[in-house]
Amino acid sequence: MYMKPGVGVKDIIVSDKLCKGCYLCIWACPWDVFEISKERNWRGVKKPVAVRLDQCRRCRLCEFYCPDFAIQVIIDEEEEKMLKEVEEKYEKPWLPRVEERDRIVKEGVWWLED
Amino acid sequence: MSLEPGVHLMQGDEAVVEGAIIAGCRFFAGYPITPATEIAERMSYRLPQVGGIFIQMEDELGSILAVIGASWGGRKSMTATSGPGFSLMQEGLGYAIITETPLVLVNVQRGGPSTGLVTLPSQGDVMQARWGSHGDYASIVLAPSSVQEVFDLTIKAFNLSETYRNPVIILADEVIAHVREPVKVPPLEEIEVVERKKPDVPPEQYIPYLPKKPGEWVTPMPAFGDGYNVLVESVMHDEFGHRIGTDHAAANRTIRRLWYKIEKNVDKISMYEEYMLDDAEVAVISYGSSARTSLRAVREARKLGIKAGMLKLITLWPFYDKKVQEVASQVKAIVVPEMNMGKMVREVERASKGMAEVMSLTKVGGLLHHPDEVLAAIKRVAR
């Protein structure tokens, strides 16, 4: 679910006050989400902008790499909750649930007795 | 077409190929190495004739992994190598054991260590065949001592590997591989061939590593593409095939099953031959090609009036403690001739529990024991 591009991410905010334009986020992003803006902001920095948000997999590497805590990945919590439910229900339909698995193992394993 | 019933003059290496084809082997991946080259060579034109695939891999590491892949593809597969290649295959062998992949590995032993004595026989790999890969596992190792036995044991090896879902190693040596002897091929309908069991439940009910009922040690094995979800992976797994890196209880269950499925069926797996053991006072316990010269020595000892007998081990591993104990309780002394610095003699000593004097007769350097050497040893312990 976390590998689906563009799902569950609302926005990636880059702070005007904190970003100094080192572009570590651009280097770190495996999905090439950022691009350097053409204009300088009031601090004279060409900020990175998340232009390809549909490619974001929410790995948050940009957030972790930023030395100035300038990046914030905004997650859509409602969508995430829904995705989790869907995953539990449908992603691995052939697997019994945990309690069921424990029961099967308890009843089925016979070779440890002696 | 497989070989026609009747008597054929064959090399040991050729007998491996013909036995494998009769057993249903349809995939071979290997890398030529003296003295196992003839196996790959004959396979390369015999397999296409019967609709099989032969592939010469880049090395032995690739060979065994290709064989594992083919086995999961649903074909009976095998590879053949000698000492140095066998060392390389150990990692893949461990992989086959934890994924419970049936395959047959023929190791035509030559003198070691390392490249060693390329064209000369040895029996130095008997311990490596049992303990070579890391971790706790049990293995099935068969040692033929004639070309006829090579043929029979190759078929048997495929049957065992399909029954127990475990790699089976055939430990031949250079003498057996290159000697030409008549091989009697029985009518095909008389040869027992075990086919792989496929799961008979729908995919959602299939549990990959949980045997259905007590006494059944392995589960049926689906092939890739059959629609069953099985994780074939080298990390420790639980009964459902899930990776469990830290679940000690599940790992305990899995490792114990891998061990017990062989070691608890030792009565069914073990094969041996007895010669004149009924009233023997001195027993020779041997295997492989050193059993050939030992038998001659035992016969000559009988002519001299020494009550000698021989136990030839055909299954080396799992070691048949029960039979060796029985022999040790009957006789005064046991001689263990082998073409190494004394490896199986440790097992014989352990199993005989001090009931008989055990003498090791070692021979290294690439020569078989001369019957006179074994006879001299028999005379010494018979005194």
Structure, described:
- The complex is a heterodimer of chains A (114) and B (383).
- Chain A has 114 residues and is α+β, with helices and mostly antiparallel strands.
- Chain A has a single domain, classed as Alpha-Beta Plaits.
- Helices cover 32% and strands 15% of the residues of chain A.
- The longest helix of chain A is centred in the C-terminal third of the chain and has 15 residues, at 77-91.
- The model of chain A has no long low-confidence stretch (mean pLDDT 85).
- Chain B has 383 residues and is of the alpha/beta class.
- Chain B has 2 domains: 6-190, Rossmann fold, CATH 3.40.50; 273-382, Rossmann fold (3-Layer(aba) Sandwich).
- Chain B has helices spanning 12-23, 37-49, 60-72, 83-98, 126-131, 147-164, 174-178, 248-263, 266-269, 290-303, 321-330, 344-352, 371-382, and strands at 6-11, 25-30, 53-56, 76-81, 103-109, 140-142, 167-173, 180-185, 272-275, 282-286, 308-313, 315-317, 333-338, 357-362.
- In chain B, strand 13 (333-338), helix 12 (344-352) and strand 14 (357-362) form a beta-alpha-beta unit.
- In chain B, helix 1 packs parallel to helix 6.
- Chain B starts with 5 loop residues before the first strand and ends with a helix.
- The mean pLDDT of chain B is 94.
- Chain A binds chain B through residues 93-96, 101, 104-105, 108-112, and chain B through 203-204, 207, 210-214, 217, 229, 238-240, 250, 252-253, 256-257, 260.
Task: Please supply descriptive tags for the structure shown above.
heterodimer, A: 114 residues, alpha+beta, Alpha-Beta Plaits, two-stranded antiparallel sheet, 4 helices, elongated, B: 383 residues, alpha/beta, Rossmann fold, 2 domains, seven-stranded mixed β-sheet, five-stranded mixed β-sheet, 39% helix
Give a brief rundown of this model.
The complex is a heterodimer of chains A (114) and B (383). Chain A contains 4 helices and 4 strands.
